[in-house]
Amino acid sequence: DVKVTQSSRYLVKRTGEKVFLECVQDMDHENMFWYRQDPGLGLRLIYFSYDVKMKEKGDIPEGYSVSREKKERFSLILESASTNQTSMYLCASSLPTTGLGGYTFGSGTRLTVV
Amino acid sequence: LAKTTQPISMDSYEGQEVNITCSHNNIATNDYITWYQQFPSQGPRFIIQGYKTKVTNEVASLFIPADRKSSTLSLPRVSLSDTAVYYCLVGDIRDSNYQLIWGAGTKLIIKP
User: Fold this and answer.
1) B88 contacts in A (CB within 8 Å)?
2) CA–CA separation, A51 vs A10, rounded Å?
3) pLDDT digit string (tens) for A57-87?
4) Residue A97 and residue B94: Cβ atoms within 8 Å?
């Protein structure tokens, strides 16, 4: 069964901490994405990557950075966590075109910043 | 970027067929139509995808009229476990600079 695995289901961090969210996929997908999902706001794209060492900003990149050193791994970094970054974070991967089966999502990481 | 319009919520009963319609009036020639299902505290899960006419898989059917300005997800004989939010997504990341718009989805509640 193909998978996107996110390293943590739940995280609690303090304001100002540096936070790493890890995502690994085993489908040899070129594209990887980080979304956050908040009630009433839907899924919003933070960053995406279409190749190793490539990264592009999504709709809401402020306060975040990413790293993609290997094809299967895409990390989201909160440089200095703030309470407004409390959210559900979703990693996804896809083939070069989403017309070939769309996105595969991980189970999500619910991050609480206190 | 094509935008979609779906009902905010729907109710149905176990054993019934449920149809959820999505409007996408400005769909582009190369756009695919993809439906996802999401349970609370989980990531969305791919259900079905189509370009035109009808597509069927083991869990759902997708009906797309000739003008492609709408699509209907059909869930046969639903059960309580089909209670979820369903999203209609239109486009292809290849043509949209990797960004597709996620709407609010349709919250489907199945009653016993």
Assistant:
1) none
2) 28
3) 999 999 999 999 999 999 999 999 999 999 9
4) yes
